[in-house]
Amino acid sequence: MPLDTAKTMADLIPNSRLVTTPDGGHHHMVDNPDVYYKHLADFIKDVENGQF
Protein backbone atom coordinates (compact mmCIF):
# COMPACT_ATOMS: atom_id res chain seq x y z
CA MET A 1 0.00 0.00 0.00
CA PRO A 2 1.18 3.56 -0.46
CA LEU A 3 3.07 4.90 2.54
CA ASP A 4 0.66 7.83 2.95
CA THR A 5 -2.21 5.35 3.26
CA ALA A 6 -0.29 3.30 5.83
CA LYS A 7 0.40 6.45 7.86
CA THR A 8 -3.28 7.38 7.79
CA MET A 9 -4.27 3.90 8.92
CA ALA A 10 -1.70 3.99 11.72
CA ASP A 11 -3.12 7.29 12.90
CA LEU A 12 -6.68 5.97 12.88
CA ILE A 13 -6.20 2.49 14.35
CA PRO A 14 -5.82 2.50 18.15
CA ASN A 15 -2.57 1.02 19.49
CA SER A 16 -1.18 0.62 15.98
CA ARG A 17 2.47 0.82 15.09
CA LEU A 18 3.79 1.54 11.62
CA VAL A 19 7.12 0.04 10.67
CA THR A 20 8.60 -0.23 7.21
CA THR A 21 10.90 -2.75 5.59
CA PRO A 22 13.49 -1.05 3.37
CA ASP A 23 13.78 -2.75 -0.02
CA GLY A 24 10.70 -4.80 0.84
CA GLY A 25 8.33 -5.63 -1.97
CA HIS A 26 5.37 -7.95 -1.84
CA HIS A 27 7.22 -10.52 0.31
CA HIS A 28 9.02 -8.53 2.98
CA MET A 29 10.16 -11.66 4.77
CA VAL A 30 12.03 -12.71 1.62
CA ASP A 31 13.13 -9.30 0.35
CA ASN A 32 14.68 -8.12 3.63
CA PRO A 33 14.35 -10.89 6.22
CA ASP A 34 16.65 -9.35 8.85
CA VAL A 35 14.53 -6.22 9.20
CA TYR A 36 11.22 -8.05 8.83
CA TYR A 37 11.95 -10.60 11.53
CA LYS A 38 13.37 -7.96 13.87
CA HIS A 39 10.10 -6.01 13.63
CA LEU A 40 8.14 -9.21 14.17
CA ALA A 41 10.23 -10.22 17.19
CA ASP A 42 9.89 -6.73 18.69
CA PHE A 43 6.11 -6.89 18.29
CA ILE A 44 5.87 -10.34 19.89
CA LYS A 45 8.08 -9.29 22.81
CA ASP A 46 6.01 -6.16 23.40
CA VAL A 47 2.77 -8.17 23.37
CA GLU A 48 4.19 -10.77 25.76
CA ASN A 49 5.43 -8.01 28.10
CA GLY A 50 2.11 -6.15 28.02
CA GLN A 51 3.70 -3.14 26.34
CA PHE A 52 1.57 -3.15 23.24
Structural summary, described in words:
This protein is mainly α and 52 residues long. 58% of the residues lie in helices and 0% in strands. It is built from three helices and no strands. The chain is flat. 0% of the residues are buried.
So what's the oligomer here?
single chain
What separation lies between the terminal Cα atoms? 24 Å
Count of individual beta strands:
0
Fraction of helical residues: 55-70%
The total of helices stands at 3
Following the backbone from N to C, one meets helices and strands in this order, namely: HHH
Q: Which sheet architecture does the biggest sheet show?
A: none
- In terms of DSSP E residues, the strand content is under 5%
Please tell me the overall pLDDT: 92
Radius of gyration over all CA atoms, rounded: 12 Å
List the keywords:
52 residues; mainly alpha; 3 helices
What's the SSE blueprint?
Elements: H1 3-12, H2 28-31, H3 33-48
Give a quick rundown of the structure.
By secondary structure, the chain is an all-alpha fold. The protein has helices at residues 3-12, 28-31, 33-48.
